[in-house]
Structure formats: C-alpha cells, structure tokens
C-alpha cells in the first residue's frame, strides 16, 4: 500500500513552502482545556501538569509513585505528544483529609501548575479544546504564499483528516490492522484498539480525500449528512436552501463522512454512492470493523481553527490556534507548509 497520509488530497494544493517541525520541544506547545470546571471539592485531586519530552503514560507512572497509588488509578482526558511541551490535566484518588505534597512533585521535565479537587475522577475525552503554539523553522520557498493560505484557512477551514499520529511509525498500525482482521495477529487489548482505530480512520480519510478532490469537503450536497458543530448530532440534507447555506457559512453545521461500523449509511444519492464505492474498495478494513462490533458513526469533514494567528520572523513561522477535541494540528499544518 502506498503511503496513506502523503497521498491525501490538499484543499489548497500542495504548499510550495517547506520547513522543519519539532526541532526542539518548545517548537510544539499544547495546552489542554477541559469541557467543565472542577468543583473544588471531593476525593479526586486534579493536577494541571506541564511536561517536556515525556508522553502522557510516563507522567502517570511518576504521579503514581509520588502519591503512592496504582498507575491504573491515575486518569487523564487525552494523550499528548512526547516531543513537545504540553500541559494537561490528570486526576489522582485522594482522601478529603489528605494534604498532598504538590511542590515535591516537580521534576526537571515535569511541573505541577495547578491543583484542585473534584468529586469525580477525570474521564477520557472531556476536552473542550487544545491550544497550540507551533514554530516551523528553516522555511524555503515563496513566503508570501503563507499569508494567502492562512487567510483561506480562516475563511474555509481545512479537511478534518485524522493525522499521521493515528497510523503509527511508517503507518505500521494499518499493516497490523490487516493482520488482526485476517486472524494473523494476537495482541493486547490496548494495541488492538489502536489498530482498529487506524483502520477506521483510514477509511474516513479516503472518503474525505475524494470529497477534497471534488471540492465538496466544505460544501453541503443533497443527500449529505450534516453534523452539528462540535456535536455528534446529525441529519440528512434533503434540500440545500438558504437556511442550510447560512448555517454552513456560520459553521453551525458541517458536511460529514462515515466512521465505519455496523449499521446503514444515512447518506443518500451521489453522496452515498461515493461513500459506498470507497468503503467497498477496502473490504478487508470495512468487514473487519463490522466483525469487531463497531457502530457506524459520522465525523465532520471540515475543521475550522479558532484564534488563528501567525508571525513570520527570521525564516521561521509561528502559528497559534485552538482546535476542538479529537482533531489534529497536523491537518492544519499540511495546508500551510510542506513539513
């Protein structure tokens, strides 16, 4: 199979400007914002931690050791990059009368920024948004193109592809998914989930790539399934009238593509024909996902960064923006600079 991410269509054409990403951890800064405010009381300590060159599970292990709890009792809302400076929330079970040593937890690569109690443990996925500050170095090419592309992204967004992280080093997660579905691979529950997610993400990306080629990834067609912004609610578009067009323009709704699994496609007409043709062409993935019991769902094909700002200086580009949970900064970057 040819490289998946490399072959995905670009909304604005492949960038003519090249650059280097993650030359140091401080070139990729991520700050997590939860979808709720901790209550301030309860038997769970929420800790806002800044980590450098460590993955999320590394921090879990150190928290478990410091607070003398089992690592499986440390909870987090989402995984964060290793080669970066990232700030995220963790929760630790903590009796109300206990006075935890927060200051003593600080290490060279980990810093506790804030501590607050809550009456329930932290759950996966309860993230409102992630804020990014990203530096791309050693730019080469026509730098005037960058401003044009960023203005296009502000107005139209970018294709909401699953990023390269989803598919593993050299996209090995896809190869392992094929082995898993063929009954040639036995692995842990966690790795199985990773491989299944990679296959599902691959199918979504392939459908979206075809929508990008047809310039319909950010347009609603009759038969489309419109999804509400930052929601899992959706409806079939029977007619693209003025109201639908205005809601699309205001980013209240977006086109969507299938996250494959058991169930019937809700899309209709040409949209359904396109989705079915692509899904059928990768039967080893689509049938494997159905056998694993996943349920058909939808995901927006359009991603609009908020608070998007940029600065060009000394042959470097600084990008700042926020993205909703479950989306990828690399999907924004690939439309700006050829990394």
Q: What does the model show?
A:
- By secondary structure, the chain is α+β, with helices and mostly antiparallel strands.
- It has three domains: 1-33 and 128-157 and 305-339, Pseudouridine synthase (2-Layer Sandwich); 36-125, 2-Layer Sandwich (Pseudouridine synthase), CATH 3.30.2350.20; 161-303, TruD, insertion domain (Pseudouridine synthase, 2-Layer Sandwich).
- Helices cover 29% and strands 27% of the residues.
- It contains nine helices and 16 strands.
- It has helices spanning 4-7, 56-67, 144-156, 172-181, 189-213, 242-249, 269-281, 283-291, 329-333, and strands at residues 18-21, 28-34, 44-52, 75-76, 85-93, 110-118, 127-140, 158-159, 225-228, 234-236, 253-254, 256-259, 297-300, 302-303, 306-313, 316-324.
- The strands form four sheets. Strands 1, 2, 3, 4, 5, 6, 7, 15 and 16 form a nine-stranded mixed sheet that branches. A three-stranded antiparallel sheet has the order 10-9-11.
- A hairpin with a 5-residue loop joins strand 9 and strand 10.
- Helix 4 packs across helix 5 and helix 4 (172-181) packs across helix 8 (283-291).
- The radius of gyration is 21 Å and the shape is globular.
- The mean pLDDT is 95.
């Amino acid at each position: 199979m040819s490289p998946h991410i490399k072959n995905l269509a670009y909304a604005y054409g492949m960038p003519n400007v090249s650059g280097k990403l993650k030359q140091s951890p401080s070139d990729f800064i991520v700050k997590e914002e939860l979808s709720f405010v901790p209550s301030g009381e309860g038997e769970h300590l929420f800790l806002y931690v800044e980590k450098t060159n460590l993955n999320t599970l590394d921090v879990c292990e150190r928290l478990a050791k410091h607070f003398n709890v089992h690592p499986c009792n440390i909870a987090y809302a989402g995984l964060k990059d290793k080669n970066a400076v990232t700030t995220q929330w963790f929760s630790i079970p903590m009796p109300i009368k206990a006075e935890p040593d927060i200051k003593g937890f600080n290490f060279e690569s980990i810093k506790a920024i804030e501590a607050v109690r809550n009456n329930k443990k932290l759950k996966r996925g309860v993230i409102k948004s992630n804020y990014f500050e990203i530096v791309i170095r050693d730019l080469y090419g026509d730098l005037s193109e960058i401003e044009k592309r960023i203005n296009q992204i502000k107005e139209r967004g970018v294709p909401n592809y699953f990023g390269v992280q989803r598919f593993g080093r050299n996209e090995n997660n896809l190869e392992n998914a094929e082995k898993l579905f063929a009954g040639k691979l036995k692995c842990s529950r966690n790795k199985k989930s990773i491989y299944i997610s990679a296959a599902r993400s691959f199918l979504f990306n392939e459908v979206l790539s075809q929508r990008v080629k047809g310039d319909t990834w950010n347009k609603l067609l009759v038969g489309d399934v419109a999804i509400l912004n930052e929601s899992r609610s959706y409806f079939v578009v029977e007619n693209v009238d003025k109201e639908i067009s205005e809601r699309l323009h205001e980013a209240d709704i977006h086109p969507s593509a299938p996250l494959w699994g058991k169930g019937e496609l809700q899309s209709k007409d040409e949209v359904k024909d396109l989705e079915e043709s692509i899904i059928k062409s990768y039967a080893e993935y689509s049938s494997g996902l159905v056998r694993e019991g996943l349920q058909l769902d939808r995901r927006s094909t359009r991603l609009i960064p908020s608070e998007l700002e940029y600065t060009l200086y000394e042959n470097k580009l600084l990008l700042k923006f926020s993205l909703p949970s479950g989306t990828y900064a690399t999907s924004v970057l690939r439309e700006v600079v050829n990394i």
